[in-house]
Automatic annotation (TrEMBL):
<feature type="domain" description="Tetracyclin repressor-like C-terminal">
    <location>
        <begin position="9"/>
        <end position="112"/>
    </location>
</feature>
<dbReference type="InterPro" id="IPR036271">
    <property type="entry name" value="Tet_transcr_reg_TetR-rel_C_sf"/>
</dbReference>
<dbReference type="InterPro" id="IPR011075">
    <property type="entry name" value="TetR_C"/>
</dbReference>
<dbReference type="Pfam" id="PF16859">
    <property type="entry name" value="TetR_C_11"/>
</dbReference>
<protein>
    <recommendedName>
        <fullName>Tetracyclin repressor-like C-terminal domain-containing protein</fullName>
    </recommendedName>
</protein>
<keyword id="KW-0805">Transcription regulation</keyword>
<keyword id="KW-0804">Transcription</keyword>
Length: 129
């Protein structure tokens, strides 16, 4: 784990597309048999939790890059903690504790939850309906 350094996440032009693509790639890699084993080893790797903390920090850094890039483009971005809680955490839970195969399309469902359904197209602010 100490040597694992992920490539920067690709830019797909919008924060929503970037987060969805990142989550899809995360599912493809981490939900594979090798990925599940790696994730379980990382989480159980020592009483101090160092390996798990480093793994979490890598994921957090990738999300931060996506959010910072979108902010620089002038987009409204979801809160980092919301991305962790609503996008990453459910994926990790299912990989660790659910035996069935995780669909890559689950990433789109989770990403959608980060963005309000109704937005004022001119200002990007949520509207009531």
């Amino acid at each position: 784990m100490a040597r694992y350094r992920p490539d920067p996440p690709p830019d797909h032009g919008s924060v929503r597309a970037d987060l969805q693509a990142w989550a899809e790639q995360y599912i493809e890699e981490a939900a594979s048999p090798t990925g599940r084993e790696f994730l379980r080893d990382m989480v159980s790797g020592g009483a101090d939790g160092g390996s798990a903390h480093r793994g979490g920090a890598y994921a957090r850094q990738r999300v931060e890059v996506i959010l910072e890039r979108a902010h620089e483009r002038g987009e409204q971005v979801p809160d980092l903690e919301d991305v962790i809680d609503l996008l990453l955490a459910p994926i990790v839970y299912r990989i660790l504790f659910e035996p069935e195969e995780l669909r890559v399309s689950y990433a789109a469902e989770l990403t959608k939850s980060l963005f309000p359904k109704h937005r004022d197209r001119r200002h990007g602010v949520p509207t009531e309906k």
